[in-house]
Amino acid sequence: MSWCEHCKDSGRIFSTCYYCDLTDGSNYVPEDYYNNLCYDDRYQSKCPVYKEHENTGSVVKKFPELPPDLFKVCFITTVTCEILGKPDDDPVMNGLRGFRDNILQKDEKYHDILKMYDTIGPIIKEKIKNDEDGDNKAKSIFSKLERIVDIVNNGEYDRAIKRYLMMTLRLVCEYGIQKTYRTKRDNDFDYKEGEFIPSKAGHGKKVYKNS
Fold first, then answer.
1. pLDDT tens per residue across span 145-196
2. Is the pTM value of this prediction over 0.70?
3. Which long-range contacts (CB under 8 A, 24 or more apart) does 196-201 make?
4. Domain boundaries, the chain
């Protein structure tokens, strides 16, 4: 991975402050951009600022809002789209999103699985991306996800959750992060009382109230 050539560090000693030379120069790069887009070799295909500049040939006046799914922080999207090269609207992806939006977010008994996914998922994602056998690992995970979507489509939601949980805990063990998992589980996956937002959960990235 390398920094986007248009992302410039204007910070001084012991500080970091980035600006994008495709903007008008007064807009410093928001944290979500340089964390998720600027340090990414594929910024040309992912960054809205770069795309707008390429299309118009002019500087960008304002950083656009980024949709939460753009960041591809969850390990399911990493496996499906980044490693296996499947489209973002792959039937497995759409099936899991529908399960999240229509079932998991709306039923309190499933909220813990969403908390786990948003907290543990990014850790697993990094492990998979740095795994020398990541391609084979991704194929194995995707096969399990296909089966989970089939189970969801049959309306067996609790069974689908059990399958997902078994798959995730197996990855936790394979990557040696059992202690991290137990610590976060025992502390409600780092959520304090009143912080969890069901309608924002399940994207592979924690979103807090008032954050």
1. 999 999 999 999 999 999 999 999 999 999 999 999 999 999 999 898 888 9
2. no
3. 196/111, 196/115, 198/105, 198/106, 198/108, 198/111, 198/114, 199/105, 200/68, 201/100, 201/104, 201/105, 201/111, 201/114, 201/115, 201/117, 201/118
4. 7-66, 72-200
